[in-house]
Amino acid sequence: LSSVPLQILFYVNGIYYIFYFLATLAMIVYKSQVFSYPDDFLAPDLALLFIMAILEVLRLYLGSKGNLTEEEAPLGLSLVITVGSVILSVYFLVWQTYVLKADVIINAVLLFTYGLESVLQVIAIAAFV
Amino acid sequence: VAKLCVCDLLVAQCDVNCCCDPDCSAADFSLFTTCSVPIVTGDSRLCSQKAAIYSLDVEANPPERIFKLIDQVNPSVFCIHATNYKQALSFSSPEMPTSENFDQLLKQFGSASFSAEPDNWNMNTDAQNPSDVNETYRYKYGVPIQTVDAFLRLPSPVVSSWCSDANPAGFLVNQATKCIRSVSVEKCGNIQAVSMLFYINSSILAVPKSSQMVNITVQSIVVQSLNGMRTSLNGSDVLRLPMILDELCINIVLGVSYHITYTDAGEIIEAAASFVLGAINKEALPIQQSFEISFTQVHTKPVPLSGNPGYVVGLPIRAGFRPQGYPFPNTNKYSQLTILQSTSNQDCLAAQGARTPILFGYNMISGCKLRITAAMKCQPLTQTLLDLLKGQSFPEYVASFGNSQAQDVLDWVPITHLHTSEQSDNERIYNTFQGSCQIPVALEIEVKWTKYGSLVNPQARIVNVTATITTTTLKQLPSGRERTIPITSSVVFTDTSSPAEPGYKAWPTINAKLPFDFFFPFV
Q1: Which of A16, A79, B360, B474 is buried most deeply by CB count within 10 Å?
Q2: Residue B38 lies in a domain
Q3: pLDDT tens column, A44-61
Q4: How far lies B122's CA from each of B95, B119, B127, in Å?
Q5: Nearest CA-CA distance, residue A9 and chain B, Å
C-alpha cells in the first residue's frame, strides 16, 4: 500500500521548493547588487542552484512514481538523489559566498523536510520489498 | 574592535576628547567633555558583531570613562550570517604594477593623459583622407587658419607674458595680443620671430586641406624710432630684414596686424599684413610685440555691430540722424550716443569736448561743477550748458537692434525729448514772470529695452529712448559773488520686458464632415 504521509510530503515539498528556488534566486540578485560579488563567485552559486532545481524535479517525480506504483526501484533512485540534494542544501547553508539569515532559515527548513522524507522513503521501501 | 581607535592621532600622547586613546590616563579622562568617537563596530550588516562603546560618566566626580564591549545584533532577516569570500567586507587593495602586468594595467587604466604612445594621431589622419576626398571643406568660426606648413601663427602670452609662437589664429576670431620676447642685439638676425619673413612667408590655404594658396601681402610698414616716434614708409613692397647697424638692431618686428578678407562661403581670398618695425639697442631688452588679426567679409564695409541681432551688454549704442527729406533716403550718418565725461578738475567750462560713448546695459552718471559769476549772461550760458550736456551732434534716432541697417527705417527708434524743471510749477511760473533765467542742469537719458525673441536666447531690443533736460532758475547774483552748481548727466537702462507667456498648442479639434452625398435622395 502506498504511503500517504510520504505522498503528502512530496506534494508539500514541491510547493515549498518552488518558493525556495525563487527566494534563493532573488537573494542572490540582491547580494550581487548590495555586496561586492565578483563573477567567479557568482557563477558557481547560480550554477549549483539550477542543478539543484533539476535534481529536485527528478527526485520528486521518481519518488512520487515509486510510491504510487509501489515499486522500490524508483524510490531507491530517489533516495540516492536525495543525498545529492542534501549536499547542495548544505552548500547553500554553509559554503555559499554570502549566507544571510534568511538563507539559513529556508535551508534549515529544506533540510528538515529532506530528513523526514528520507525516513519515510526508507520505511516505504521496506514495506514494498 | 577594542583596539581600534580612529581619533588616536598623536603617538604616545593623549588626544583630547578621544575616549579610546590608550595613552590617556584616568586623570586625562576626567578633563574631557564628550567622547568624539562613541562607538567602534565592525560592519553593521553582519548578524552579530562586537562593538566597543565609550562614554563619559559626567555625574561621577571626577568624570570617568566607561568602556563596554558588547555584541551588537542586526535584527534584519537579511543580515550576513557568514561569508566565504575573504575580501567581501573590506576595500580591495589595488594591484601593484610589476614588469609583468604593467602592459595589461596600462591598457586597462591608461587614458589620453597617460598612454604608451600617441599612435592614434597618425591613425586618424590616414583614415580620414581616403574617405573624405569628395567633401568640400570650408572654414568655420574658430577653426585654425591653415597655411602651407602649419597654422597661421599669432604669438600670444601663455601663462606668463612671454610670447608663445604656437598659438594659431582662429577664423573669424578677432584677436589682439601683446607679449614680450627677449632679443639680444648680437643675434638679432638669427631670431626668426622678429623678422618680417617669419610672418609672411607661408601662404594661407584658401580652404582647409586644399592646395589653393593665398599669399600674404604687405599692406604698410611703419617704422618706429628709439624714442617712439613712428613714420609710415612709402614703398611697402620691400622686405626689410633685421640687420645690425651701429650697435643697433633695426627692422625688428614690433607689431603685426593681419587683415583677412573672406567670402560668405568660408573661403579666404585675401590676406594683408601691416608691420611696425623698430630698432633696439642694448638697453631695450626684452621687447614687447603686439599682434592683431581682423576679418572682413568681401564686398562689405566693416561696420562694427553692437550685437547680432540683440544688443550685447558693453557695446556702444548705435545712433544716427535722418536727413530731412521724404521718402527716407538710404544713408544715415553713423554716430554714437555719448554723454559728458567727468574730468579730474571737475570744471565744466574747462573740459569741453570730453565725451564717452554710452554702452548698452551700463548705467552711467557723470557731471561737473559750474561756477557762475555775476557777469555771466543767461542766453550764452544756457547754450553752453546745452552743448556740454548733449554734445555737438546729439543724434535723433537710435537703432533698436544691434545690427540695424540704415535702410530699415522701422528698426530705428526716435529719441523723445522732455523738459522738466527742478522747482515746482508754481515757482516756475512765478520765476518766468520775473524774467529770470532757466538753465539746464541735468540730462537724463532713459533707455527702455525689452527682451525679444525666443525664451532660450532672448535678444535685447531698444524700444524707447527719452532724453530729459532738467532746468533750474538762475538767480541773479550780486556782483562779485559766485556760486557753484553741479551739472549732471546720466544714462539709465530699464528692462521693460513683459514676462514670458507660455505658448500652448491649440486643442485638437474633431474634424468630422459628412460625406458629400450623405443626404442623397434629397440633395
Answers
A1: B360
A2: yes
A3: 999 999 999 999 999 999
A4: 32, 6, 9
A5: 27
